[in-house]
Amino acid sequence: MDSEFRPNPETNPEDITPSNNPQESFPKKYPVQHILRGSRKGIINTMHSLYALGYAEISEWTPLQPTGLPGEFITMMTKYLTLG
């Protein structure tokens, strides 16, 4: 199942993880992975709630994938947070 969730090559965490260079003027970005696992209806409701809060676009989530358990699905999203 893990092989079904392939990282987006345009948002490779190794390309944007914080550096140890104190003189760097670019903000540091930290990857945080969100995983939703449950019923299709529950996952879709949660995705829409996060969208309504302005936290995540629906298109940022991977397509729903069955987990192998009856009626259970999984999706994930990676956000890159800038921490000061």
What are its keywords?
single chain, elongated, 20% helix, 84 residues, three-stranded antiparallel β-sheet
- Uncertain segments: none
Q: What share of residues is helical?
A: 10-25%
Number of helices: 2
Class of secondary structure makeup: alpha+beta
Radius of gyration: 15 Å
Task: Describe this structure in a few short sentences.
This protein is an alpha+beta fold and 84 residues long. It is built from two helices and three strands; from the N terminus they run αβαββ.
What does this structure look like?
- With 84 residues, the chain is an alpha+beta fold.
- The protein is 20% helix and 26% strand.
- It has two helices and three strands, in the order H-E-H-E-E.
- A three-stranded antiparallel β-sheet has the order 1-3-2.
- Strand 2 and strand 3 form a beta hairpin.
- The longest helix is centred in the middle third of the chain and has 13 residues.
- The termini are far apart.
- The model has no long low-confidence stretch (mean pLDDT 83).
Annotate the secondary structure layout.
Blueprint: H1 13-16, E1 29-38, H2 40-52, E2 65-66, E3 73-82
Antiparallel strand pairs: 1-3, 2-3
